[in-house]
Design brief:
Number of domains: 2
Strand order of the largest sheet: 22-23-1-24
Largest sheet: 4 strands, mixed
Bound molecules: uridine-diphosphate-N-acetylglucosamine
Radius of gyration: 21 Å
Structural class: alpha/beta
CATH class of the largest domain: Alpha Beta
CATH topology of the largest domain: UDP-n-acetylglucosamine1-carboxyvinyl-transferase, Chain
Strand content: 25-35%
Helix content: 25-40%
Distance between the termini: 6 Å
Number of strands: 24
Shape: globular
Length: about 425
């Protein structure tokens, strides 16, 4: 089993370059199914999730090639509109191929999605959207089938601003007949990147990045070249890693606007944050102050940064309260952080964190992607050795995580042990 082993207590120093955003590139790869031709996607991070998405495409007859962070996809020979359990179970974002397949080919049969075990994560909003666009949706043998000779635009109100549902409906509506309006849409930067990608393909989408997205369907879309936005969660994770180790680190390739909520909370915690267009410099000061925070859809504090920030707050001088409102079961890192000496109590959807003087290295288990990153971050500040197991979760979403930390001077290595 692969583990990440961290010898804590070394300050980080230097510059780290943020990779392209996982959560932007996955829907973009799915959106390539809306046209036939050759796509070139620059700044694609090479991650297990991207590999899974390319395997899924391959199972549909779509070829892809990855070199030097450039992903080439050729959709000309698509043969199937059916995504098997083997591909979809590994990653929930696989379900994003449903909208494009349905819109372009009139049929999609997708296994029920898997992914991180951070809550029940239903797909009802995606399906409600497809039905509103005129698709017939049926279930059987663990598969969902959606069919429609031609989708028709409609007004769709999302009960929750789901990122995936907004993306799936936006992609499907791009090739529907007439106008679609998505109300209470997710406003995440990755939605804007997808909208830019689709518009460059020939779609007519307005309002991405706000809560109302208007889409005028077009007859066809074309293959294009696109550069993926930087990964705000990776950048945020390095910001917290620098803060917890009281280090001086410059994180480049960022969009400052995307990091505002994390930067503000770090400043509240007493961390020096100098953010500009070129990068964000983090200088850890002496004390970490307690901070209360609540995860919310963008532009609120991202749920994908909750675990990492909690790791930081375990060492704050006082008590912090972290409330998770996006997912109902996203505190699985808490028992692991406790093994390292953290004092955390869970009360319903909140975690009450009483700061301790020191964390101690321990053998801990990564339970999901961001939880795994949080444990590595905690390990960087802990006394002694931390060994994080089940790191396949971390590899799903962080490109060269250990290498990047090592380049900053961290004593981190990946080992393969029985
Ligand atoms: C995306 C991100 C993930 C992030 C999440 C929230 C990708 C590939 N993943 O996941 O990293 O943590 O946004 O920012 O972009 N929900 C429903 N019904 C639905 C869909 C969602 O009830 O049909 C609920 C979910 O159970 C969850 C909440 O809505 O409680 C948010 O989910 P959603 O925004 O859809 O997250 P994902 O798109 O899966």
């Amino acid at each position: 089993m692969k583990r990440i082993v961290i010898e804590g207590g070394t300050p980080l120093r230097g510059i780290v370059h943020t990779s392209g955003a996982k959560n932007a590139v996955l829907p973009i790869i799915a959106a390539s199914l809306l046209a036939q031709g050759e796509f070139t996607i620059y700044d694609t991070p090479w991650l297990a999730d991207v590999e899974t998405m390319c395997e899924l495409l391959d199972s549909l007859g779509v070829s892809s090639d990855f070199q030097d962070n450039i992903l080439r996809i050729d959709t000309a020979n698509l043969q199937k509109t059916e995504a098997h359990y083997d591909c979809v179970r590994k990653m929930r974002a696989s379900f994003l191929v449903m909208g494009p397949l349905l819109a372009k080919y009139g049929h999609a049969k997708i296994s029920l999605p898997g992914g991180c075990a951070i809550g029940s994560r239903p797909i009802d909003l995606h399906l409600k959207g497809f039905e509103a666009l005129g698709a017939k949706v049926t279930f059987g043998d663990g598969y969902i089938v959606a069919q429609a000779a031609k989708l028709k635009g409609n007004k769709i109100y999302l009960d929750f601003p789901s990122v995936g549902a907004t993306e799936n409906i936006m992609m499907a509506a791009s090739l529907a007949e007439g106008h679609t309006v998505i109300e209470n849409a997710a406003e995440e930067p990755e939605i804007v990147d997808l909208s830019n990608f689709l518009n460059a393909m020939g779609a007519k989408i307005k309002g991405a990045g706000t809560s109302v997205i208007r889409i005028e369907g077009v007859d066809s879309l074309s293959a294009i070249r696109h550069t993926v936005i930087p990964d705000r969660i990776e950048a945020g994770s390095f910001m917290v890693a620098a803060a917890i180790t009281k280090s001086d680190v410059l994180i480049t390739n960022i969009i400052d606007e995307h990091l505002k909520s994390v930067a503000a909370k770090l400043q509240d915690a007493g961390v020096n944050v100098d953010i500009s267009y070129d990068g964000v410099r983090i200088q850890g000061t002496g004390e970490i102050y307690p901070v209360d925070l609540k995860t919310l859809p963008y532009p609120g504090f991202p749920t994908d940064m909750q675990a990492q920030f909690m790791a930081l707050l375990t060492l704050a001088r006082g008590t912090s309260i972290v409330t998770e409102t996006v997912f109902e079961n996203r505190f699985m890192h808490v028992p692991e952080l406790r093994k390292m000496g953290a004092d955390i109590r869970i009360e319903d959807r909140s975690a009450v964190i009483s700061g301790v003087e020191r964390l101690q290295g321990a053998d801990v288990r990564s339970t999901d992607l961001r939880a795994g990153a949080a444990l590595v971050i905690a390990g960087l500040a802990a006394d002694g050795i931390t060994r994080v197991s089940h790191i396949h979760h971390i590899l799903r979403g962080y490109e060269n995580f250990c290498e990047k930390l090592m380049a900053l001077g961290a004593k981190v290595k990946m080992v393969d042990e029985p």
